[in-house]
Structures are given as C-alpha cells and as structure tokens.
Amino acid sequence: MTTFCDASAIVKQYVDEAGSNALAALGERLVVSDLSAVEVPSAIWRKHRSGEVSATDASVLVSAFAFDLRGGTYQPPRYAAVELRPAVLAQAAELLPRHDLRAGDAVQLASAITARTTLEFCDSFATFDARLRIAVAAEGFVVVPSDSDLEPA
After folding, report:
1. Total number of domains constituting the chain
2. Residue 58 belongs to what domain range?
3. Any residues with CB less than 8 A from the CB of 143 and at least 6 apart, and which?
C-alpha cells in the first residue's frame, strides 16, 4: 500500500509527539506534496519557537527531512513527491467550494488526488488535521490513522 502523507503526518516521522506511533505501521511507500518542503520545516521551527525542541535539534531534523525528500548522491529520496504543477493548483482551487479547507490543505489534498491517479494503490491519506480528515474521507481516501487509533494531543 502507498500512503499520501500531509505535513502533519510527516512531522511525526521526525518529532516524537502524539501520533508518532500510529505512523510506524505505514511502511516505506510514502508520497508527499512538494508543498511539504516548506510546511514540514515550518512546523519544526514552530516547535523550536514554542520550546519543544532545541535550535540544534530543529536544524538537524529539518536537514534530515530535506535529505529524505530529495535524496543524495548515493541515496534515493525516501518519499515520492508530487510536483506543484498548474494542474495540481487548479485542482486545489476546485476543492475549495466542496470542503472547508485552508489553501495549503487544499493543495495537499489535490496532490493526493494526483498521486492516486498516477500511482498504483495510493488510496490512503495520513493526516492529523481534523478538517482535512473530513475532506480526505469525502474524496474517497482511507484516512490513516483511523479515528480509533488517534492518540490524545
């Protein structure tokens, strides 16, 4: 199974917090939006500003994510990434009348829809955002973790 992950899910791969354990079962076939290249570091640096992680740890975590996203000379990327092309952005705009989403969440969902049409078995979506979970389910994705597997914040 291939799982699309928004930034709220990807951050949990790097910062031990509520929900991190639920992501361990996702496996290795993970897809993200190119938007996560900005959203994940933003979330990690917010955690630093709130005192949850040190500046050194935040820097290391952001670097680790960047490496996992793009890979290196001898290491392929950990994640497949959906490029932010005009068609993805147009799809995001089309989602807004149907769902109560912020712009970034609409882009994440549009990226997942694009991944679902191009990748075999990409029918699950990992997110911890309540509004996005509703929209993801309405668009026919299996939402992970399940509501029963969500840990209290």
Report:
1. 1
2. 2-149
3. 124, 125, 127, 133, 136, 137
